[in-house]
Amino acid sequence: MRTETDRTEARRPWGLAAFLLVALVAFLALGLWQVQRMQWKHALIARVEARVHAAPVAVPEDARLIGEGASDLNYLRVRISGTYLAEATSLVRAATNLGTGYWTMTPIRTAEGRQVWINRGFVPAGTKRAQAAATAPAGPVVVTGLLRPTEPGGSILQSNQPGADRWYSRDVKALAMARGIGPVAPAFVDAQVEQSAPVQGLRPVPGLTQIHFPDSHLSYALTWFAMAAMSAMALIFVWRRGRWIA
To answer: 76-195: which CATH architecture?
Structure first.
């Protein structure tokens, strides 16, 4: 003969309880994962901040810029000297705090013959390539800035159109091919300071590199933990009210 306890146990919502238990564990795991991601992101931000404010170093060799660990060189503060190839100047669409316009991309050639694209800074919409090229100082120049990875293909919304000389990303290899200047380093430098002989007239505005890492992991973690808490409360409720659900 079945007792009242047996009948109560038989009426308990085992399926729903199991589902809520799995959900509880999953939400807790997701919350803990977001906490780990937050710690990783904060460590990344600290490393980048240290690079940005460190003393400038030489631009690393090409093999380091494309090999394992290349991401660790992003925003590295570098210094490079040489001569601008003004005739190869290119304009890349840009949207900045100063408005819409272009990044002025000009390659620099070092005494050793290495070529590295320099983002000399922002010029307003309406600037012609010849005007931007004319701003490149003749003779020796020393550039201090932040190392950035190449941006192949174009922007999210628009692809580069080399044939029409329309550029939406700083794709250093494609820019070099379009200008016919030969091999270049697989990265570019966002100029902060340009030391050269004085140049009259229009000058690109340097130092506009935006360093921003989305950091919403704490809010995500709290959301997952809140859902875990709700799952726990629901599990307790349905377990205690099992005979109503049967």
So the answer is: Beta Barrel (2.40)
